[in-house]
Design goal:
- The protein is built from 19 helices and 24 strands.
- By secondary structure, it is α+β, with helices and mostly antiparallel strands.
- Among the domains are: 196 residues, Beta-Lactamase; 141 residues, GAF domain (Beta-Lactamase, 2-Layer Sandwich), CATH 3.30.450; 57 residues; 152 residues, 2-Layer Sandwich (Heat Shock Protein 90).
- The strands form five sheets. Strands 1, 2, 3, 4, 5 and 6 form a six-stranded antiparallel sheet that branches. A six-stranded antiparallel sheet has the order 14-13-12-17-16-15, sandwiched between helices.
- 32% of the residues are buried.
- The model has no long low-confidence stretch (mean pLDDT 86).
- The chain binds adenosine-5'-diphosphate.
- Adenosine-5'-diphosphate binds next to helix 16 and helix 19.
């Protein structure tokens, strides 16, 4: 499974992003450097220009003051009287427009004359002897006063000049600095740049039109102004950065007018100065924008060129992974990707080839397997037929049908060998025409002159690839005429004798493959087995029939013999009894003793004969029960009465426990007593110490009679055997006690004829318990198993 990919994680996005990033970086870097340099150049140039202008303005102002000073100087040269002075002053006022007022201080510092342009001048007669305009003027000839403002905004300025003649006093002139503005007005700096002049107090004396600040405004706090006013610092000529009154950044430069302690400042708003730079930045931004678009397009194009073939590769690879081996990747980029694609294609071709080879192999294998499965099935079917069916003919039919099918032949047949005639006879055919079957049956196939005979002699299969090439054997022409041209003959041979032949035939000529031949060999072996089985079965059938007859004869004979033996034996016993009883006169004691032993042996013999007679009757199916009502209690009672003395003689405790109110049973009382007597006698006979217990009760419509002893017990391997005729437990105790091994066999028969069971539970060294389960009311005699 492929992980979910977003378009922004793909190659395409990476390519585009890298290219756009690179272009942006280069442009931005370049632009940044350019802008930095430009900023430096612009500020430098502006400041330089401003400085030049400030210098120029400063010079002009200097000249302006010099000119005024010169004019005043002219008025102070000669000594003159008051009228002369007044005339001089009036002339001066006429000539120099900037002079607003002229006053004459006499040698003692007292104002003696005052003329003003507006005619308001009035001599005050005030004493200025201590005023700097008097003292400084006397000391330095000229004294420039600080600027001051009338009405707050009209700048004025005082020049005091000592008269050339000693003690002639000082001319104090008030200069209207409004004229100063004419000097700076025309100075233009960019569009919004301006010029202004500040006095030593830091107030604006004059300003160009663009400067929005009123004359008289105190600008001493501006960063570019403050250093100019400080006395300690050398006054810088150039101040690059400053602020205007509104706090906006300006590029500023200044020039000082040393004589009066003023400064000219030329300033341009930074915004305006940097306009070209901003324009450049704008262009740059535009360029970056364009660059981005171009880079994005180029990136997209490039990425497409890369990504499309890579996608084709990817699709190709996943189709390959999905086993679409006939898919070819079509990439014609002429580069490594195309090489990779053709490698992929080569791989696909290889895979396709090996896949189809593999498929072919799998197909072959599957075919082989299917064939094997068919063969196995057929063999299993035949095996089952051989094992379960005693019908030889149907087994042979199965074999020949499957043989034809699996050998992919058109017909087949099994022939049986008649040893007495030394000939083969058709036993079973499959796929042969009835007329051909008829014809084959009518043909004598001698062992000596047939392909089947050859195969049987050689004991191995014969393949006849083309029937037309073999000698003129009996079946050759018939088979050829029926349209068969190739034949496989597999002999059916037992260890010693020939049994027959399995033949499969095909319409076309040609060899039979080795595996078919060996498969047919297996079929042939199965046929041999089936034939042998059939023969064995026939023999067994015959034997058991004979045995049955013999057994019947034996039973008959025994029944007759027993009867014949019993009659004279009874007579012998009767006479012996009469003799012991003294019917034929008193006999000596010795003779009586012998007679009694004769009697005992005779009775034993009679019992034996009775047993044999019973058994033979039972086996001959001639034994009939005398069914009548009986009491189980009395059956047990009579058995106890008969065996009590025996038990006593051996010192054994014989106990009988009969459940109260047992219902009346129906059965052969005499035979049931015989059975119980046999079991109890055995118990007493085989038990040396301990007890013999008889217990009778009823459950589920049955009498349950159990005889338990503390005798030697019966080994597990003997437990089933002792119920068979003439069988005894294989141990020394039994051998000591003698007996015939008939008692239990007869007992079992008798109980089973009553529809009941006789069973045994025993443990060696502990004792045995025989149990009779007997239906209470037996209305009909059962046939023992
Ligand atoms: P018999 O007693 O004449 O040999 P039975 O058919 O009555 O014939 O008994 C068969 C054998 O079963 C005995 O020979 C003996 O080996 C064994 N058998 C029968 N009853 C007992 C028993 N109560 N304890 C041990 N062995 C017994």
């Amino acid at each position: 499974m492929t992980a979910v990919r977003h378009w922004w994680t793909g190659l395409f996005a990476k390519y585009v992003a890298s290219l756009v990033g690179l272009v942006t970086f280069v442009l931005a870097f370049n632009g940044g450097v350019e802008a930095g340099l430009m900023y430096r150049d612009i500020t430098n140039a502006v400041v330089r220009l401003e400085s030049e202008k400030a210098q120029f303005a400063g010079q002009r102002i200097g000249q302006f003051i010099d000119e005024i000073e010169r004019q005043i100087g002219w008025a102070t040269r000669a000594s003159a009287g008051a009228d002369q002075r007044r005339a001089d002053y009036m002339l001066l006022l006429q000539q120099v427009a900037a002079i607003d007022q002229l006053a004459w201080l006499d040698g003692s510092g007292k104002e003696v004359l005052n003329i003003s342009r507006s005619g308001t001048g009035r001599v005050t007669g005030a004493d200025y002897s201590r005023s700097p305009k008097f003292t400084q003027a006397l000391a330095n000839r000229v004294w420039f006063g600080p600027g001051y403002f009338r009405n707050g905004t009209e700048p004025y300025f005082t020049i005091a000049m000592a008269h050339a003649v000693r003690n002639a006093g000082v001319t104090v002139s008030e200069i209207d600095l409004g004229h100063l503005e004419d000097l700076v007005r025309t100075i233009q700096v960019g569009k919004t740049g301006y010029v202004y002049v500040i006095g030593s107090q830091g107030r604006v004396l004059a300003r160009s039109a663009q400067y929005r600040v009123q004359s008289g405004t105190d600008v001493s706090n501006l960063p570019q102004v403050a250093p100019l006013l400080s006395v300690a610092n050398a006054k810088p000529e150039r101040i690059a950065h400053g602020r205007d009154i509104d706090g906006r950044s300006v590029l500023a430069s200044s020039a000082s007018i040393p004589r009066v302690g003023w400064s000219v400042l030329v300033e341009q708003p930074l915004g305006e100065a940097l306009e070209p730079m901003y324009a450049l930045l704008g262009r740059l931004a535009w360029l970056i924008g364009m660059g981005l678009v171009v880079a994005a397009c180029a990136g997209a194009l490039l990425a497409r060129r890369m990504v499309v073939p890579i996608r084709a590769l990817q699709t190709g690879a996943s189709r390959l992974a999905a086993s679409e081996f006939d898919h070819r990747i079509d990439v014609r980029t002429g580069d490594e990707i195309e090489v990779l694609a053709s490698e992929f294609n080569r791989m696909a071709t290889h895979l396709q080839e090996s896949y189809s080879r593999l498929e072919q192999k799998v197909e072959e294998r599957t075919r082989d397997l299917a064939q094997s499965v068919r063969e196995l099935k057929a063999l299993e079917e035949i095996g089952r037929a051989v094992a379960s069916s005693l019908e030889l003919q149907s087994v042979l039919e199965t074999i020949v049908t499957r043989a034809v099918e699996l050998a992919r032949a058109d017909a087949g047949a099994i022939y049986r060998y008649e040893a007495s005639l030394r000939e083969f006879r058709l036993a079973e055919a499959h796929g042969l025409d009835p007329s051909l079957v008829e014809a084959v049956r009518g043909t004598r196939i001698r062992e000596s002159e047939s392909a089947m005979g050859e195969a049987a002699t050689a004991r191995k299969p014969i393949v006849i690839a083309d029937l037309a090439t073999i000698p003129n054997y009996p079946l050759r022409d018939l088979t050829l005429a029926a349209g068969f041209h190739s034949v496989l003959i597999v002999p059916l041979v037992g260890p010693e004798e020939i049994l027959g032949s399995l033949v499969v035939q095909r319409r076309e000529t040609g060899d039979f493959p080795g595996n078919i031949v060996s498969l047919m060999q297996t079929f042939a072996d199965q046929s041999v087995l089936a034939m042998a089985n059939a023969r064995l079965f026939r023999e067994i059938e015959e034997k058991s029939r004979q045995l049955e007859i013999a057994s019947q004869h034996k039973s008959q004979f025994l029944a007759n013999m027993s009867h014949e033996l019993r009659t004279p034996l009874n007579a012998v016993l009767g006479y012996a009894e009469l003799m012991v009883d003294g019917l034929y006169g008193q006999l000596p004691d010795k003779a009586v003793g012998i007679l009694e032993r004769m009697q005992a042996n005779g009775r034993h013999l009679l019992g034996l004969i009775n047993d044999v007679l019973d058994l033979s009757k039972i086996e001959a199916g001639q034994f009939t029960l005398a069914l009548e009502d009986y009491s189980m209690k009395s059956v047990v009672g009579s058995v106890v009465a008969a065996t009590e003395s025996l038990a006593q003689a051996k010192g054994l405790a014989l106990t009988a426990e009969v459940a109260a109110d047992l219902p009346t049973g129906r059965g052969d009382e005499r035979r049931l007593t015989q059975v119980l007597l046999n079991i109890v006698s055995n118990a007493i006979k085989f038990t040396e110490v301990g007890s013999v217990e008889i217990r009778a009760d009823a459950a589920n419509g049955c009498f349950q009679v159990r005889v338990r002893d503390t005798g030697p017990g019966i080994a597990p391997q003997d437990q089933a055997r002792i119920f068979e005729e003439f069988q005894q437990a294989d141990n020394s105790i039994t051998r000591q006690k003698g007996g015939t091994g008939l008692g239990l066999a007869i007992s079992k028969h008798l109980i089973e004829m009553h529809g009941g069971t006789l069973s045994l539970q025993s443990e060696l060294g502990v004792g045995s318990t025989f149990q009779i389960l007997l239906p209470m009311r037996v209305e009909a005699q059962s046939t023992p198993a």
